[in-house]
Structures are given as structure tokens and as C-alpha cells.
Specification:
The structure holds 2 protein chains of 2 kinds. Chain A is an all-alpha fold. In chain A, about 75% of the residues lie in helices and about 0% in strands. Chain A is globular and about 85 Å long. The two termini of chain A are about 25 Å apart. Chain B contains 12 helices and no strands. Chain B has helices spanning about 1-25, 25-45, 45-50, 85-125, 125-140, 145-155, 160-185, 190-195, 200-235, 250-255, 265-290, 295. By secondary structure, chain B is an all-alpha fold. The two termini of chain B are about 40 Å apart. The longest helix of chain B has about 35 residues, at about 85-125. Chain B has a single domain, classed as MetI-like (MetI-like fold). The chains are: A mainly alpha, B mainly alpha. The interface of A and B includes residues 18, 287 and 303 of A.
Chain lengths: ~325, ~300
């Protein structure tokens, strides 16, 4: 994890230096500056020093929690990131929840009904979901549910009619804490379509993985023993097989985090969701060098942390790993 | 000499027959393959098939609905966009770009990835550590985000988008090849060929590589479909092919504002992406089942 972290700092550091143009041009905007002033501003940002010196002062700043200041908003990048992070986290969690609630049962049913039309139907749908261009899927759902049926809002997290003070940054929690009536339902309404769009590919992956994990487990001896003892299908599947099949599924969920953040870039752009994805796209387009640099590092770090948590959870769910470790 | 070459061709024919036996067992995989061949033919003969030129504007027929909807015309079967360009022709021509993007990305990432993976697995030591750490770093950043940043460096455009996506796909090939190489390295046939005096290049490419190909081919097929999706996504975000190039993702982006007044201009390019990707994924699934010896007899 540590070498990878430094690898990412190198990428983020290199990014600004390789990019055509420089931060001062962005700061100056259309007006432009005189060459003297240009050099002066570059020196102010430390860009006149040798590269290795710049890199070490960059690393030094990172460990003091300073990832630079946005060229556009003039605010610390860390501050902006953590202000927007809850919105993305909320969206991502809801998407994963949606994927789990539908994907796991679908995978189990497909495994139990293996080879029947139910199995084939579920697998066809999930392969279609897996092949979905999600930006188009989002537009399609907006077209259907928001514009034609008027069921869901087109963009944003909450209607402007409500004034909910940010406490946790998670809109569902904040609206519950506030005394605005109906705001919780409104926030929920805003979350439905983006969560479905972002959750579509994870849903497909989880359904497929659950099915193959279940098939593998269902052919094990201990499941046959459980059946032979006369236990009901429900008990065999839900108590005996599912727990072991879940081990594979948890790993898969962990692998989804990175994909989820990539998906969030598209989903947030389509739904005007004020999160990290939309912010980083905006930063790339407005050539906000320091925001992209800091954003890259923070996103990569948060993925690493989530993966670490999944690894720890894995040991908790699969005691065999812990036993192996304590033996060796 | 001729007998050995005959024997090896007959073995190859036999391998193909065996492969086709398992592959054709899956009807969906065959259906995907047929559809994919149709799309490839469509891309190859785009100029012949498409009823109009992809950039030809018929101003008097702007925003015409598809032929089966009231007001539609048969000569513009899938309708026209805001400038009166025929959607069907644009989508047919777009298939060239999407398939090309898929091919370029897979060829680039696979050749670089396999080479680095072989070297990492064969050489070991600090070379391996260095290669794998670089790959870990690439994997630490979400693919689409890294591709976006790379395109920001290289400048927007279809070619740069393909290069950027290829870079983000390389690590999966490196990892796969390295793992297979490591498991093959100590087999008897490799030792035998080493004893017979084979050099490192011969060992890597002639002895080891052919035996690692099955998972690499499957990964290549799956990357082909995601490459089409990612190219379209970059095009949609304005970082890939630039309008008026009829790349499928760019088509969706340029017609996004027409979503209410002319929904067909957004719907059909998306269906094209979905069907092409679905077909490739079906083939990929079939390939995996046919090439994976573990699943063969189950």
C-alpha cells in the first residue's frame, strides 16, 4: 500500500508538469500577463525550483494535510474534497445497496433453478446490464421517469424548496435531523434514479458472481449431507450454502469500489449530482491543476482504504484465513 | 520434416475442432458471434450500406422521426438529427470508429501487458518488483479517471483517448501473464527446453507464452467490450472523438439537448453501443467456457 501511495503521488505530481500550459495561465485567464509577472507568479508557486526539490516539498505538504489551493475557487483542495465526498459516498452506498438487494437473491434463484428459463432469463438480463453504457442508461431513465412520467426529479440532491442545514453531508440523515417536513422523501426521490444507474453494473456483476459461487458451493459434500439429513431446501440454501458463497461475493464487492468511482463520474455528470465525480470533471475541464492533482491522490487513497477494510472484513467472514495466519 | 509439420497441422485442426465443439455448445455465444460478424461487415462496408453520407445535411428534413412513427420517411429510417443528418448512416459509420477503438486498445494493452508480464514473471527480482509496483499504481486510480487525466495531458481526440484507455487496461494483462508465467516456469517442458540450450527470448515467447494464452484471450475479448464502452464514455464527456465525428458516444453527447424534442437521436446510438458490447460479451463468455479446462466437464 505504501509504495502504491508514493506511486500515485508521483503520477499526481508529474501530471501538472507534463500538461501543456501552466497554472499561471489559468490564474491569468483570458487577459494574460507580462512575461516578468508570469515568472514571478511561477516562482511564488515554487515552479522555478529543480523538480526533485518541488517533489519533496510537495510530499512535505501532503503530510501536513496541504494539497494545494484550487485555482478556480481559491479554496483548499482538501476542504472542497471533503465537503463533496459525502454526496458521492451516499450515492455509492445506495447504489451498492440496490445492487446487493436485487443481485444476491437473483443470483441465488438462478443457481437453484440452474438450466431453466428462469436461470437463462436472469443471466441474460444481468449480461445486458453488464454491457450497459451507463451514461446512456441514465439519459434513458431521465427521459422515461422524469420527463414523460414526471415521477422523479431530473437533477440535484434536494429541491430548492427545502432549507436543510448540512450536518453529516449525507442528505438522507441531514433531512431526518432537520425539521423540514417532507424533505426526507424529497431527498430519497432525488436518489432513486442515480442509484439505479450507478448500481446497474455492480448489480450485474454481483448476480453473476453469486450464481457461480452458489453453484460451486451447492455441489460440495457438506451440502449434499445437509440435504441427505432431510433439511428443507430453504435451510440448506440459506443457512449452509449461502454463508460460504458470500465469501466470494464480498471480494467482488470490494473490487467494485474503483469501478463505482469511475461510474460516479458519469452518473454525477448526468444527474447534476454535486459530488466528487462532477467536481473532478469540472476541474479537468477548467484546467484546475491543483484540484485534479489533489483529487487524484485523495480518490486513490480512499479506494486503498476501502480495499483495506474489505480485506479485514474478509478475514472476519472467512475464519479459515485467520486460522491460517495464526498457525503460521 | 514434412511429417512433423503435417502432424502439427493435424493437431492444430484437432484443437480447433475441440474448441469449436465446446464453443458451439453455447447457443448464445454463437448468436453473439454471428451478430459481431454482422457488425464487422457493417463497419467494413459502411460506405456501401449506409443510405446517406454520415455528414450530409438535409436541412429541410431536420429532426425527422423514425420511419415507423407518424411524420417519418422511409429514406431516413432511424430519423434525422438537428442538422438533418441521417441517424442510421451516422450509426453505421460510427461502428467503424467503435470497433477500431476496441481493436487498438486491446492490441496496444495486450502486447505491452503480455510483454511486461512475461518479463516480470521470467526475470523476477527487482525487475518484477518495479513492473508490478508501477502496475499497482495504475490500478489504484479508477480507469476512467486516469484515462480522463491522460487525455487532458495528450489533448482530446479519438486517438489519444484510445492510447489513454489502453494504458489503464495494461495492468490486468501484466498480472494475468505474470501469474501464468510463474506457474509454467518450473514445468518439465520449460526445463527441458532450457537444457536443450534455448535462450530467454525463445523460452519466453516460444515455450511459455503459448501455454498462457487461454486466459489472455478471454481477458482480451472482455477488454474489447469495455474499451468500446470507455471510448464512448470519453466521447460523451467531450474528451474522446470530437463532433461532428460520428463516434457513438459523441453522437449521444451532441444530441443530448434534443432528449425531449427528438429522443430517437439519443436512443439509437445507445442501442448500437449496447448491442455491440453485449454481442462481444456473449462471445467472451463462450470463449471462457470453451477454453477453461476447469469448467469443461462440469
Amino acid at each position: 500500500m505504501v509504495p502504491v501511495f508514493f506511486g500515485v503521488t508521483l503520477v499526481a505530481f508529474g501530471f501538472i508538469r507534463v500538461l501543456p500550459g501552466d497554472p499561471v495561465e489559468v490564474l491569468a485567464g483570458e487577459r494574460g500577463v507580462s512575461p516578468e509577472r508570469h515568472a514571478e507568479l511561477l516562482a511564488q508557486l515554487g515552479f522555478d525550483k529543480p523538480l526533485w526539490q518541488q517533489y519533496f516539498s510537495y510530499i512535505g505538504d501532503i503530510f501536513q494535510g496541504d494539497l494545494g489551493t484550487s485555482l478556480i475557487t481559491n479554496r483548499p483542495v482538501v476542504e472542497e474534497f471533503f465537503e463533496l465526498f459525502p454526496a458521492t459516498a451516499e450515492l455509492g452506498l445506495c447504489a451498492i445497496l440496490f445492487a446487493l438487494i436485487i443481485g444476491i437473491p437473483a443470483g441465488i434463484i438462478a443457481a437453484i433453478k440452474r438450466g431453466t428459463w428462469i436461470d437463462q432469463g436472469i443471466m441474460s438480463i444481468s449480461l445486458t446490464g453488464y454491457s450497459m453504457p451507463i451514461f446512456w442508461w441514465g439519459l434513458l431513465l431521465i427521459m422515461l421517469f422524469s420527463n414523460t412520467l414526471n415521477l422523479t426529479p431530473v437533477s440535484g440532491r434536494l429541491s430548492f424548496l427545502f432549507d436543510v442545514p448540512p450536518v453529516t453531508g449525507f442528505m438522507l440523515i441531514d433531512t431526518l435531523l432537520s425539521d423540514e417536513k417532507g424533505s426526507f422523501l424529497n431527498a430519497l426521490h432525488h436518489l432513486v434514479l442515480p442509484s439505479i444507474v450507478l448500481g446497474t453494473i455492480p448489480l450485474a456483476v454481483i448476480a453473476r458472481q453469486t450464481r457461480s459461487a452458489m453453484l460451486e458451493v451447492l455441489s460440495e459434500d457438506y451440502v449434499r449431507t445437509a440435504r441427505a439429513k432431510g433439511l428443507s431446501t430453504y435451510r440448506v440454501v440459506a443457512i449452509h450454502a449461502l454463508r460460504n458463497a458470500m465469501i466470494t461475493v464480498v471480494t467482488v464487492i470490494g473490487l467494485q469500489v474503483s469501478l463505482l468511482l469511475a461510474g460516479a463520474i458519469l452518473t454525477e455528470t448526468i444527474f447534476g449530482w454535486p459530488g466528487i465525480g462532477k467536481w473532478i470533471i469540472f476541474s479537468v475541464f477548467s484546467r484546475d491543476y491543483f484540484a485534479v492533482q489533489g483529487g487524484l491522490l485523495l480518490i486513490a487513497t480512499s479506494i486503498m482504504i476501502v480495499n483495506l477494510i474489505v480485506d479485514l472484513l474478509y478475514g472476519f467472514i472467512n475464519p479459515r484465513i485467520l486460522h491460517q495466519k495464526s498457525k503460521s | 520434416m514434412s511429417t512433423t509439420s503435417n502432424a502439427s497441422t493435424s493437431i492444430r485442426v484437432q484443437q480447433w475442432q475441440e474448441f469449436w465443439f465446446y464453443f458451439s455448445a453455447s447457443k448464445t455465444a454463437v448468436a453473439g458471434l454471428i451478430f459481431l460478424i454482422l457488425v464487422i461487415l457493417m463497419a467494413l462496408f459502411a460506405d456501401v450500406i449506409s443510405p446517406h453520407g454520415p455528414a450530409e445535411q438535409y436541412r429541410e428534413f431536420a429532426k425527422l422521426p423514425p420511419a415507423w412513427v407518424e411524420g417519418g420517411q422511409l429514406q431516413f429510417f432511424l430519423g434525422t438529427d438537428y442538422a438533418g443528418r441521417d441517424m442510421l448512416s451516422r450509426i453505421i459509420h460510427g461502428s467503424r470508429l467503435s470497433l477500431l477503438a476496441g481493436c487498438v486498445v486491446v492490441v496496444l494493452s495486450m502486447s505491452i501487458g503480455v510483454l511486461l508480464g512475461l518479463i516480470a514473471g521470467y526475470r523476477g527480482g527487482w525487475v518484477e518488483t518495479l513492473i508490478m509496483r508501477v502496475m499497482d499504481t495504475i490500478m489504484a486510480v479508477p480507469g476512467l479517471l486516469l484515462a480522463l487525466v491522460l487525455v487532458a495531458i495528450l489533448g482530446p481526440g479519438l486517438l489519444n483517448a484510445m492510447v489513454a484507455i489502453a494504458i489503464t487496461y495494461t495492468p490486468s494483462f501484466v498480472r494475468l501473464t505474470r501469474a501464468s508465467t510463474l506457474s509454467e516456469l518450473n514445468r518439465d517442458y520449460v526445463t527441458a527446453s532450457k537444457v536443450a540450450g534455448a535462450g530467454p527470448a525463445r523460452l519466453m515467447f516460444i515455450s511459455i507464452l503459448p501455454n498462457c494464452m487461454a486466459p489472455i484471450i478471454v481477458q482480451g475479448t472482455l477488454s474489447f467490450s469495455t474499451a468500446i464502452l470507455d471510448t464512448a464514455a470519453l466521447g460523451f464527456l467531450g474528451m474522446g472523438a470530437q463532433a461532428p465525428i460520428p463516434e457513438w458516444g459523441t453522437l449521444i453527447a451532441e444530441n443530448r439537448d434534443l432528449i425531449m424534442s427528438a429522443p430517437w437521436t439519443v436512443t439509437f446510438p445507445g442501442i448500437a453501443i449496447l448491442l455491440a458490447v453485449l454481442a462481444i460479451n456473449l462471445v467472451g463468455d463462450g470463449l471462457r467456457d470453451a477454453l477453461d479446462p476447469k469448467l469443461k466437464r462440469s
